[in-house]
Design goal:
Elements (H helix, E strand, L loop, with lengths): L4 H20 L3 H4 L8 H12 L3 E10 L3 E8 L10 E7 L10 H5 L13 H20 L1
Antiparallel strand pairs: 1-2, 2-3
């Protein structure tokens, strides 16, 4: 089939625009959260833990709060490290408005001043989790 040049050019421009539009437009499902805290990136991280056999399975939500959800899981094996038979996984919520105020608690802590970046929410969550782990270890002593 032979197309005139102007028809071919119109189809080519339309195809190019549609291709770029499909990259720009996303479904709400892609960024929505399930189980009140799990977005697709977090779900992928949990799947990786199960596939690497660090966790045997993740059962469901134990409790949900203002800042995080806690899930029950059965431990697997992780090389020569011992993983407990039953584990609790804490998933912090990042889509809430209260999340924006968390940076105050990290910014004021002398241990995190040099690593603090307000730009990336996932980095703030990582620092927040480190701070909570440090506090739990201090409480255990």
């Amino acid at each position: 089939m032979v197309l005139p040049n102007h028809v071919y050019n119109v189809l080519k421009v339309h195809s190019y625009k549609e291709d770029h539009r499909s990259h720009r437009v996303h479904d709400k499902k892609e960024i929505s959260t399930a189980e009140q805290a799990i977005d697709p990136k977090t779900r992928l991280l949990l799947y990786k833990l199960v596939n690497a056999e660090v966790l045997e399975c993740i059962n469901g939500s134990i409790s949900t709060g203002k800042e995080a959800c806690v899930f029950h899981a059965f431990g697997g094996k992780m090389g020569d490290l011992l993983v407990p038979n039953e584990c609790a996984i804490k998933v912090f919520k990042t889509t809430l408005n209260e999340f924006r105020t968390r940076d105050r608690y990290i910014k004021e802590d002398f241990r995190f001043k040099d690593r603090f970046s307000k730009l990336n929410p996932r980095k703030i969550i990582k620092l927040w989790a480190e701070k909570e782990m440090h506090n739990l270890n201090r409480m255990r002593r």
